[in-house]
Amino acid sequence: MNSTGSLQYDFGTIEVATNHFSDRNKLGEGGFGAVYKGTLQNGEEIAVKRLSNGSNQGQQEFQNEVILVAKLQHRNLVRLLGFCFEGTERLLIYEFVPNASLDHFIFDSARRSYMDWEKRYKIICGVARGLLYLHEDSRLRIIHRDLKASNVLLDTEMNPKIADFGTARLFNMDETQGITRKIVGTYGYMAPEYAFYGQFSAKSDVFSFGILVLEIVSGQKNHSFQNGENVENLASFVWKNWQEGTASNIIDPAIKNNSASIREMIKCIHIALLCLQENVTNRPTMDSVMLMLNSFSVALAVPLEPAFFISSSIDPELPLLADDNNSRVSDKSSDYSINRDPITDLHSR
């Protein structure tokens, strides 16, 4: 592990930058705490994630996010500038991304009209590139485990940046999947094998990506999709229309008038359904997803019925913040022996 000493900020410096964490500077509040806008003495704008004392993200998760994000450099990932660990205060200092998160646009009736198909397609492709980097192209092999619209930030050019790596897990080169007894993430985006059995892999992120794509195309949340007077699961509505040959019913009316791009929208729905396959092996890798997004000559597989998340009394947007003894499974082990080494023992590749 590389030293993170050069990334450490003094608490007083950040306190001044955020005007003592004033409510006026607050950008939002998540499961792990509040996020504030700040300005350093050199004029640089920052976003400060102040972890709440009562949050379930302990020192291990805090250190996890610092180690992970400090090593990552990609235009579609939010950039970590530094951190502060002082007394009970735990802060993460990021680049400031001015246009907030994707959910503020696609789920807002007024702002959604600003999101034409060109912008939405750029976001879909950008998130796909970011995930591909995490899964295959970075010095680390990383599973995000909480990809959702609120964890995709948008810069001044509406380029997407994947954020929030507090629940991420990294793997050695010969490891491709893991098992955990405690689930972390957000229910509405979770792959079934992860939600029910604690099994996660890059294909878990692929499933979440599929949900995200459907939300971007339709402009509606997966768990509260409005179909007339009825509220139903977006994925099931998509599948029903796909089978009936009426996939265009899924498309957000705000972009449906762009007839020249309808074919591209339908292709994205097709790709999303492939990402939502219940059988993990039937889901594409992010490398394959990028190939499908960038070419119309690639033949897409016929999707089977996707996995529908079972309705429950639990808020599907509720982050699950339990600590877990991360268990990683090595492909080299014929009996899938569990590797319980702490994350700080792993090295980048």
TrEMBL record:
Signal peptide: none annotated. Residues 326-349 are annotated as: Disordered. Keywords: ATP-binding, Glycoprotein, Kinase, Membrane, Nucleotide-binding, Phosphoprotein, Receptor, Repeat, Serine/threonine-protein kinase, Signal, Transferase, Transmembrane, Transmembrane helix. GO terms for molecular function: ATP binding; protein serine/threonine kinase activity. It is found in: Membrane. Gene3D superfamilies: Phosphorylase Kinase, domain 1, Transferase(Phosphotransferase) domain 1. Residues 21-297 form the Protein kinase domain. It is a single-pass membrane protein. The keyword tRNA-binding does not apply. GO terms for biological process: response to abscisic acid. Pfam families: PK_Tyr_Ser-Thr. It comes from the Eukaryota. GO terms for cellular component: plasma membrane. ATP binds at residue 49. Belongs to the protein kinase superfamily. This is Protein kinase domain-containing protein. It comes from Daucus carota subsp. sativus (Carrot).
